[in-house]
Amino acid sequence: MLRGRNRAALSRVLAFVFACACASGCGSLPRDPEGTLRRVRGGRLRVGLVENPPWVVRGQGEPAGAEVELVKRMAAELGATPEWVWGGEQQHMEALERYELDLAVGGLTKETAWSKYVGLTSPYFEERVLVGVPGSTKPPGEVKGVSVAVKRGDAAAAYVRKEGGVPVASDDISQAGGPAAAADWKLEQAGFTLTDIELHTGKHVLATPPGENGWIKWLDEFLARQRPQVKGLLQQEEARR
Q1: What's this model's pTM, rounded to 2 decimal places?
Q2: Which domain covers residue 54, as residue numbers?
Q3: Is the pLDDT of residue 10 over 80?
Q4: How many domains, the chain?
Q5: Secondary element (H or E) of residue 166
Q6: Which DSSP category does 28 fall into?
Q7: Are residues 75 and 140 in the same domain?
Q8: 37 in Cβ contact with 218 (< 8 Å)
Q9: How do residues 141-197 score in pLDDT, each as one tens digit?
Q10: CA distance 125 to 235
Q11: What residues form DSSP beta bridges with 183?
Q12: What's CA 110's distance to the chain center, in Å?
């Protein structure tokens, strides 16, 4: 009889430990306090668009751009209908902060000043600003004192200047006869040979409402599958411009 009671007591203890372990494990799973992932499945996906070619392109009809294409693929997997909302970055970030949007895209990087107020996916694409040279031109050992072609209005000019180089504004860097600075994928597309001179790195992310960790986890897994195709999407969009 005593042995039976001990066995019953042990069973109750094990059941209690198991229940606690399950509760602890379940509590650590990513959750959406506002139910974003559950709501967008088979429903509406409210997307804030910030015009920033080639990431997001505004035309006469449907929006285009590399990140817009990613969102369309995302919506297809979720069985959701994207609802596009055009606006400025601040407008969209404030809407995300108040759960009025499910996502915002526009070439954002993890350095965004809004990272304290909204959620961000893990970086899904690393864009390096490098110096490239045309054809078999001998690359410079450094940028200091070197004239470097940059796209007119591109931030690459500031990166060149910071390293002591001389940025030369150009409407088409593919026509440059010497070194040029731009994102690595742009230089490759223009036929430049990439050098080891790295001027800047931007890690691209998508923005979400704050605290929706289940939604962010789903997005991270989706973007990880898309990562090998991002460069091609950017180059394809750039070729249309």
Answers
A1: 0.86
A2: 36-124+205-240
A3: no
A4: 2
A5: strand 166-170
A6: T
A7: no
A8: yes
A9: 999 999 999 999 999 999 999 999 999 999 999 999 999 999 999 999 999 999 999
A10: 14
A11: 129
A12: 8
